[in-house]
């Protein structure tokens, strides 16, 4: 009957803990419904304590207390067992705790094996019990909704595989696996040297093959530090009681940090006593280091321990280090070429040589709130080789930043872009300008990132001037679109494609270069390929003195997805830059380019082109065009027009043209005396015009001969249904007009 009575009390207590009703009118703690607060400081007080249904709080404290098994309280709000002389904790009669259970500072405590608690609505703290090895009494807990803190128990938790549920931290593993406890609510730290800190690794014999994590809070702890091997998992060094001497002691005892190294708030002046001596294979976090080296003329925190480190295999975080100084090339962080994770520099002193060799950041790159008053460091611009940012790029609230120098070579930004530097410090010249100028790379660099697809479509872009005004990027295309450019003089060309190699490659929609004054040399035009990677639309060159297409399309040149138009290019002769092209995605036009050479043999010039999606227009070509011109051409999506080509040009004899989507126009070609090359036509979608050809050769014959395909071919094609219904036919030769159905 007594047991049944106690069960009813426990159930009632838990019901009250849930806040459904108050168990007593004398409630003193709103976090639980119980009444009565008690402090027991002697064994006699414990022994004399009467049985109670509930209590708001019971604090048991005193070195003379060795046994509390007699406490007969079914439900308690807060239960604290602190600084007692108990060796074996027995608490069989208490079944529920509403707010907190604390077992702390008990110097002689070895086990918590007889614990009757089944319901804990609040937190459990098991802390600073140096002899404690057994917490198996917790196996009886059926429900827990708060957090579990197990910290500072230097004998508890040695991790071994294949031990029973009652062993060490296996108790916690059992509670997690049975859904009594959430793993994310468990904190494990500063327990046995071979205890894990990650609950998911309990029972595996260490966090990684017998490798454990440690936290060091003082030089004394560093001196007493006795790791299980030369490698550790995560290492946290925290607090002002750790000096450079303490870091040197740690470096003498370990050789590898496999995970994250965190140094937070330590009294360090240098990195040289640890870094470069210990292999850090994960993230490195240096935070809240406000001390500095007084040996030199300037105050600084010595980063030279990193001078031989070229790669960070996780994050690199530098926060609140006001005296941080980045030494020149070959020193400090200047040798680092790659950071696998995030790079964060926040509230630090900085100089322009900070990351002189940095090429790639796998995650986010954040420079924020740097160059603060404690140390007058500066970076007007950075000196980097940066090409790749896998995540977001954030530059914000940096007092001394007045340009984007160091970012000119960036080829990829995978996340958001935020660029809001203050640029308000003396010498900062009012921050970053829009247009680049000597010593200041402006926001026009960002514009090139957007138009060139370096910033990914859909990314959020927030760029602001020093006064907070948003930067307006004019002519910025929508995601998936590209910017078009029209260049009309040499100065514009040099601004578009500088000859110092500083151009950032981009994909453009249309590129039009008009040089009616013939001011752009071949050398000037050759630099276009340093800026343009691809033309999605049409490339147009007009009025230029360009001589060779090889300057555009070969030796690292750009590609054209759409059309190619050369118009009024009096000196253009070399088309061999196009020798590897097999498809033209738009029009192919040569208008009034008298010197172009198309007869260099198979495999050269235009001879590899199989299809033209748009029209073909050859006008005003006076040098030879023979059959080899379009040796491979089978289809033209638009018109096929050859007119006013008065060179040594008789026919397209080896052409394989099968389809013309538009009209076929062959007119006023003085030596064009045959229709060779058109025999394979299967479809013409527009009109037919064949007039004024062969005037110096007697015209195109009406009837084909052994070496000339005559007008009779047109009659045959007509009867074979090659021409579209409704097509208009204009046919003339030697001053005589012919009807298609008479041929």
> Tally the helices: what do you get?
11
- What would the principal axes of the Cα set say about the shape? elongated
Mean pLDDT: 86
Low-pLDDT runs of 5+ residues are: 1-30, 372-377
Using the CA coordinates, give the radius of gyration.
41 Å
Strand tally is 48
CATH fold category name of the domain at 2-201: Leucine-rich repeat, LRR (right-handed beta-alpha superhelix)
What would you note in describing this structure?
The chain has 743 residues and is of the alpha/beta class. It has a domain at 2-201: Alpha-Beta Horseshoe (Leucine-rich repeat, LRR (right-handed beta-alpha superhelix)). The chain has 11 helices and 48 strands. The strands form 8 sheets. It has an 11-stranded mixed sheet with strand order 30-32-34-36-38-40-42-44-46-47-48, covered by helices on one side. Strands 12-14-16-18-20-22-24-26-28-29 form a 10-stranded parallel sheet. The longest helix is centred in the first third of the chain and has 16 residues, at 2-17. It is elongated, with a radius of gyration of 41 Å. The model is unreliable at 1-30 and 372-377 (pLDDT under 50).
Please summarize what this structure is.
By secondary structure, the chain is α/β, with parallel strands linked by helices.
List the helices and strands and how they pair.
Elements: H1 2-17, E1 37-40, H2 43-48, E2 52-62, E3 73-84, E4 88-91, E5 96-104, E6 111-115, E7 119-120, E8 123-127, E9 143-144, E10 148-151, H3 170-177, E11 186-189, E12 214-216, H4 219-224, E13 231-232, E14 235-238, H5 244-253, E15 256-257, E16 261-264, E17 279-280, E18 284-287, E19 311-312, E20 316-321, E21 338-339, E22 343-348, E23 360-361, E24 365-368, E25 388-389, E26 393-396, E27 412-413, E28 417-420, H6 444-451, E29 461-463, E30 485-487, H7 490-496, E31 506-508, E32 511-514, H8 522-526, H9 528-531, E33 532-535, E34 539-542, H10 550-553, E35 559-560, E36 564-567, E37 583-584, E38 588-591, E39 611-612, E40 616-619, E41 635-636, E42 640-643, E43 659-660, E44 664-667, E45 683-684, E46 688-691, H11 712-719, E47 729-733, E48 736-738
Parallel strand pairs: 1-2, 2-3, 3-5, 4-6, 5-7, 5-8, 7-9, 8-10, 10-11, 12-14, 13-15, 14-16, 15-17, 16-18, 18-20, 19-21, 20-22, 21-23, 22-24, 23-25, 24-26, 25-27, 26-28, 28-29, 30-32, 31-33, 32-34, 33-35, 34-36, 36-38, 37-39, 38-40, 39-41, 40-42, 41-43, 42-44, 43-45, 44-46, 46-47
Antiparallel strand pairs: 47-48
């Amino acid at each position: 009957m007594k047991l049944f009575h106690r069960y009813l009390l426990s159930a009632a207590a838990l019901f009250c803990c849930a806040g459904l009703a108050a168990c007593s009118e004398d409630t003193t703690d709103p976090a639980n419904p119980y009444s009565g607060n008690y402090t027991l400081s002697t064994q006699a007080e414990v022994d004399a304590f009467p049985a109670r249904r509930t209590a708001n709080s019971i604090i048991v404290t005193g070195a003379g207390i060795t046994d509390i098994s007699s406490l007969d309280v079914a439900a308690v709000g807060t239960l604290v067992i602190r600084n007692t002389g108990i060796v074996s904790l027995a608490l069989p009669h208490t079944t529920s705790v509403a707010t907190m259970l604390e077992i702390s500072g008990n110097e002689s405590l070895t086990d918590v094996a007889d614990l009757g608690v089944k319901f804990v609505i609040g937190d459990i703290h098991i802390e600073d019990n140096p002899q404690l090895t057994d917490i198996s009494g917790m196996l009886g807990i059926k429900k827990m909704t708060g957090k579990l803190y197990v910290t500072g128990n230097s004998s508890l938790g040695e991790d071994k595989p294949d031990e029973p549920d009652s062993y060490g931290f296996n108790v916690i593993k059992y509670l997690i696996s049975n859904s009594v406890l959430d793993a994310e609510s468990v904190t494990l730290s500063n327990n046995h040297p071979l205890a894990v800190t990650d609950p998911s690794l309990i029972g595996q014999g260490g966090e990684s093959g017998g490798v454990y994590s440690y936290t060091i809070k003082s030089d004394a702890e560093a001196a007493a530090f006795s790791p299980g091997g030369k490698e550790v998992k995560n290492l946290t060094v925290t607090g002002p009681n750790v000096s450079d001497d303490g870091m040197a002691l740690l470096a003498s005892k370990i050789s590898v940090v496999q995970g994250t190294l965190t140094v937070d708030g330590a009294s360090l002046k240098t990195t040289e006593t640890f870094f470069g001596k210990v292999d850090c294979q994960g993230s490195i976090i240096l935070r809240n280091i406000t001390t500095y080296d007084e040996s030199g003329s300037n105050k600084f925190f010595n980063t030279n321990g990193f001078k031989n480190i070229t790669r960070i295999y996780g994050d690199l975080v530098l926060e609140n280090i006001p005296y941080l100084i980045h030494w020149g090339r070959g020193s400090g962080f200047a040798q680092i070429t790659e950071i696998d994770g995030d790079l964060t520099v926040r509230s630090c002193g900085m100089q322009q040589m900070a990351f002189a060799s940095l090429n790639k950041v796998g995650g986010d790159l954040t420079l924020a709130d740097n160059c603060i008053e404690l140390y007058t460091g500066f970076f007007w611009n950075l000196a980097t080789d940066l090409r790749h940012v896998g995540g977001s790029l954030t530059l914000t609230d940096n007092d001394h930043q007045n340009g984007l120098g160091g970012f000119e070579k960036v080829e990829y930004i995978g996340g958001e872009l935020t660029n809001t530097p203050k640029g308000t410090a003396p010498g900062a010249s009012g921050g970053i300008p829009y247009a680049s100028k000597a010593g200041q790379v402006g926001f026009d660099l960002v514009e090139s990132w957007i138009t060139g697809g370096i910033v990914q479509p859909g990314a959020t872009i927030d760029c602001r001037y020093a006064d907070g005004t948003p930067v307006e990027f004019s002519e910025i295309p929508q995601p998936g679109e590209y910017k078009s450019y029209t260049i009309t003089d040499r100065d514009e060309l040099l601004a578009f494609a500088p000859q110092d190699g500083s151009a950032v490659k981009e994909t453009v929609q249309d590129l039009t270069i008009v040089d009616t004054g013939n001011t752009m040399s071949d050398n000037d035009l050759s630099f276009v390929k340093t800026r343009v990677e691809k033309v999605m639309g049409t490339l147009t060159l007009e009025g230029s003195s360009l001589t060779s297409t090889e300057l555009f399309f070969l030796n690292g040149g750009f590609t054209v997805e759409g059309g190619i138009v050369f118009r009024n290019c009096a000196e253009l002769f070399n088309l061999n830059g196009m020798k590897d092209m097999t498809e033209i995605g738009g029009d192919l036009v040569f208008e009034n380019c008298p010197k172009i050479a198309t007869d260099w043999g198979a495999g050269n010039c235009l001879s590899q082109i199989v299809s033209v999606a748009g029209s073909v227009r050859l006008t005003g070509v006076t040098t030879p065009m023979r059959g080899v011109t379009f040796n491979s051409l089978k289809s033209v999506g638009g018109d096929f027009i050859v007119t006013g080509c008065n060179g040594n040009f008789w026919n397209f004899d080896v052409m394989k043209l099968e389809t013309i989507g538009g009209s076929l126009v062959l007119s006023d070609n003085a030596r064009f005396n045959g229709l060779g090359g058109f025999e394979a036509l299967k479809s013409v979608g527009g009109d037919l015009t064949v007039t004024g050809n062969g005037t110096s050769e007697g015209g195109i014959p009406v009837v084909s001969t052994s070496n000339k395909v005559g007008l009779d071919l047109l009659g045959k094609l007509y009867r074979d249904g090659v021409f579209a219904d409704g097509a208009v036919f204009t046919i003339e030769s030697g001053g005589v007009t012919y009807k298609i159905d008479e041929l």
